[in-house]
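Thread: Newbie trying to understand structure tokens

Hi all, I'm a second-year student working on a class project, and my supervisor (Dr. K.) asked me to get a predicted structure for one chain before our next meeting. I've only ever worked with sequences, so writing a 3D structure as a token string is new to me. If someone could post the tokens and maybe explain what I'm looking at, I'd be very grateful. Here's the chain:
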Amino acid sequence: MENKSLQISRHDPVEKPVPVEGLEVTSKPSAQAQDLEPSSALVSEALKLILESALFRSSKRGSQFLRFVVQYRLQNHPEPLKERTIGAALFNRPADYSTGDDSVVRAQAREVRRRLEKYYIAHPSENPVRIDLPVGSYSPEFRWAASRRAENSLAASISFPETSEAVVPPEPMPAMIVPGMQSNYRKLLFAAAAVVICSVAFLVVSRLTTSRSPDSVISQFWSPAFASSRPLLICLPKPILYRPSADVYKRTAKSPGEFDREIDRMTHGPHLRADDTIRWGDMIEFYDYGVSKGDVEAAVRLSNFLGRQGKDSELRVGNGYSSEDLRNAPAVMVGAFSNPLTIGMTAGLHFAFVDDDKGTRIQEQGPSGRSWSSKHWPVGEDFGLVTRLVDSGTGQFVVLVAGVEASGSDAAADLIVHSDGLEKALGNSSKDWPKKNLQIVVSTMVEDYVAGPPKVVAVYIW
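---
Reply by user tm_fold:
Sure, no problem. This is what the structure looks like when written as tokens:
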């Protein structure tokens, strides 16, 4: 019988092909194997499913960005997609704007990549076509999902021989034990087992000695979060931040090249007098900056505390989280007047954040309700509010850590990561308080924008 060869083509061989009798291996893919990119119609269908997902419905800019770059690629433009092209088309930037001074496109690309990654984790088999945005490029890639790609590659590159004979792989050689080594092998095995047992015992003892007592106030406060298998989300707000453009710096430079470098513009202000005027176009919105110092310090306190308790956490900044995320996991929301979610969740509660003609403050309900507003900086007093909602509007356990100013947020976070502070706040409360909602108002003395220890001012439980 004539023995025909089995031909296998490989796109990216990692090893030099080894000849095998009855088997021919080639490194050059066949024409059929090369033509594996999905059609435009399938890519458009995959894009539609992605944009209809909750991850992209909650991000208007992210949806616009992804739709634009995919359609640009599908239209086979001869010019590669550039940052300036996207900025002018989607973000109303001038056609010749300085991309080095304005990172709006880069920031949005990072956000789209993050959302795409989360989408494919949540929907691993929803569509056989995958759309990726490689790092360092604004041109998307279209490819088959792993299972479909594997099927196409095999179908395109393998031709089976017309024979009934099967290729039988060689039997594996039996393990060999050299005489005299068996006793040493057993000793090594026992030693390895002893090391594993000691390591496990050490981890268990360490966990027991560092964890809080199940009956402690701090454990009861956080018990709904610890009971969840999902990581706790720590959500930081990111208010809008504007910076003077590079042109403003260059116009006001007192010596040639003074503000030519970004590091000089980041660490110094332009030379402007109090009565100088600049155009609104001279101010550029920066998406990578704007997180408050006090909010960051609060997030660090919370993250360190959760790590000591063995609880996983995820930090989300700005629009890095959606309403769907908050419905699926417990969360800590940081910030007040920079965070619309905090304002909305505390509206109507016993203590709420208010901003009116009397200024920003924490206000107690009722005609004789107390109010707390921050004093002047750099030395003064700030106030923070802890709100613990066992079953919030999201359906999950939520803790709101916020202040009239950012230092108040830091003080509020400080209270709920130390048992002594919570003990003073809740030690005399009824025994069923862990099952209830509560709010705690704290004050803190602030010097040089650094918050001091929190002091409990008022507590309300319902």
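A couple of things are worth pointing out once you decode it. The radius of gyration is 31 Å. Residues 182-210 form the longest helix (29 residues). Feel free to ask follow-ups in this thread.
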